[in-house]
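Page 37, continued from 36.
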């Protein structure tokens, strides 16, 4: 049996026809965003779709190492739920992010659903080499505005972990921890991370 072939010159036209089925940038609704069924990391900002770059192997290894440490700690103390991306977090109406790692206390279970969480109690981001400002500046401002009590910024460039804690409407630096030091949490008493050990996962 002969199967129909799509010629290269047809592919562009077909792709454009598919694209026309979706709303234009700036005109997406929350409902349309939440109905997307895709394995891509896509964040949502007031009608705009933001497709994130594909994570690298080193990025994923760091995320997994931190996720396992946090999840084991949380499970042992029965403190709540820990997930890793992709999982949507609504910061406020019209704004969704997908943190690399996210934690919600048990007492805030009513803010969790299958499709998305309403905020979080702690989030972690491994800084992307493609857009460091996004994690260090933009998301720092947004997570603070959303009232997320603690934000960990994991920086592969200098193998550091910055732990930010919320004071009022802004984050203050609890500590920037480097190789040879132990990163500590303010929110989770006794939760610690050996910085050198985590970054050795990508060595």
């Amino acid at each position: 049996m002969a199967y129909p072939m799509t010629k290269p010159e047809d592919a562009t036209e077909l792709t454009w026809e598919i694209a026309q089925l979706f709303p234009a940038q700036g005109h997406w609704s929350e409902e349309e965003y939440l109905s997307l069924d895709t394995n891509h990391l896509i964040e949502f900002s007031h009608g705009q779709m933001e497709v994130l770059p594909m994570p690298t192997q080193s990025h994923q290894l760091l995320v997994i190492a931190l996720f396992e440490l946090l999840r084991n700690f949380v499970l042992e103390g029965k403190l709540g739920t820990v997930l890793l991306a992709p999982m949507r977090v609504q910061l406020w109406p019209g704004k969704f992010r997908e943190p690399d790692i996210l934690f919600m206390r048990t007492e805030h279970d009513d803010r969790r659903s299958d499709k998305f969480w309403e905020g979080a109690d702690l989030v972690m981001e491994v800084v992307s080499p493609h857009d460091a400002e996004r994690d260090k500046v933009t998301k720092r401002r947004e997570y603070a505005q959303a009232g997320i009590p603690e934000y960990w910024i994991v920086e592969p460039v200098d193998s550091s972990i910055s732990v930010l804690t919320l004071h009022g409407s802004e984050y203050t630096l609890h500590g920037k921890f480097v190789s040879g030091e132990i990163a500590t949490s303010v929110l989770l008493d006794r939760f610690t991370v050996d910085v050198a050990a985590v970054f050795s996962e990508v060595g």
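The helical segments are 8-19, 30-34, 57-77, 132-145, 195-199. Flag for discussion at group meeting. The mean pLDDT is 85.
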